[in-house]
Amino acid sequence: MILDRNAITQDVPINPETGKPYLNTVAAIQVSVSGAGSEVSPYVAQAVKVIRDSGLPQETNALFTDVEGDLDEVLHVAGEAAKKLAEQGYRTSLVLHMDIRPGFTGQLTEKPQIVDKLLSE
């Protein structure tokens, strides 16, 4: 399969284990609680731990944890991270921004590299 970053559509690979289309997704996930005071880091850390324990490639920055994987896996881990806090009785906020791009993988690192390259030219 040949990938073309400028193509409108790509061939959609099939996951050999499941037989389903593999829909690569890069997502920015933010989970927090409301009404717990001015410092929510202890709650955010619980949600981030769920994401990190998922085994999906991820990186945490000041506002989001970016994750990459199949669409179903990413949606599952985002839901589990939110449930970690909601099941404790907290009003929980989940912000989810996704780029679903069939055929591509490794975009968590490749996308920033492309931007850096363009900026250095």
UniProtKB/TrEMBL annotation:
Matching InterPro entries: MTH1187/YkoF-like, Thiamine_BP, UPF0045_domain
Pfam families: Thiamine_BP (PF01910)
Domain of life per record: Bacteria
Thiamine-binding protein domain mapped to chain residues: 28-114
GO cellular component, one term: cytosol
Record-linked PANTHER family: UPF0045 PROTEIN ECM15
Protein family (similarity comment): Belongs to the UPF0045 family.
Entry protein name: Thiamine-binding protein domain-containing protein
Organism listed in the record: Bifidobacterium hapali
Organismal lineage: Bacteria, Bacillati, Actinomycetota, Actinomycetes, Bifidobacteriales
